[in-house]
Write a structure and sequence with these properties.
Helix content: 10-25%
CATH architecture of the domain at 2-74: 2-Layer Sandwich
Strand order of the largest sheet: 2-3-1-6
Distance between the termini: 76 Å
Number of strands: 6
Order of helices and strands: EHEEHEEE
Shape: elongated
Radius of gyration: 25 Å
CATH class of the domain at 2-74: Alpha Beta
CATH topology of the domain at 2-74: Alpha-Beta Plaits
Strand content: 15-25%
Number of helices: 2
């Protein structure tokens, strides 16, 4: 069974997590999730336990338990496809003219100031 472990201290190690879950049964793997750019822990992990009974025992015992000053959130991990997608993300980066350059469509700054008169004010 794959188990989600959240609200971890940023100082927690895979060894700390393995020790806590190992008290309840066999632990196959511990994956401490780290930021891909900084390499620092993101505060959550996944623990794989082959025996469902032991896994459920670990979830019941460790959910809400204090570890390194933080109360753990422990539950059965949901498959990625079932998780709701959270907003955010970037945009598309603008329109492209197919040549690797962005077009100068409406609202795009192309050196003309985005104005139909070429960015120049006309004095009447």
């Amino acid at each position: 069974m794959n188990i989600y472990v959240g609200n971890l201290s940023f100082n927690a190690t895979e060894g700390d997590i393995r020790q806590a879950f190992g008290a309840h049964g066999e632990v196959s793997t511990v994956s401490l999730i780290k930021d891909q750019f900084t390499g620092r822990p993101r505060g959550f992990a996944f623990v794989e336990m082959p025996n469902a009974g032991e896994a459920n025992s670990a979830i019941a015992a460790l959910n809400g338990k204090e570890m390194q000053g933080r109360n753990l959130v422990v539950n059965e991990a949901q498959p990625r496809a079932d998780r709701p997608r959270m907003g955010g993300g970037g945009g598309g980066g603008g329109r492209s003219n197919g040549m690797g350059r962005r077009s100068s469509g409406p609202g795009h700054r192309s050196g003309r100031g985005g104005r139909p008169d070429g960015g120049h004010r006309r004095e009447w």
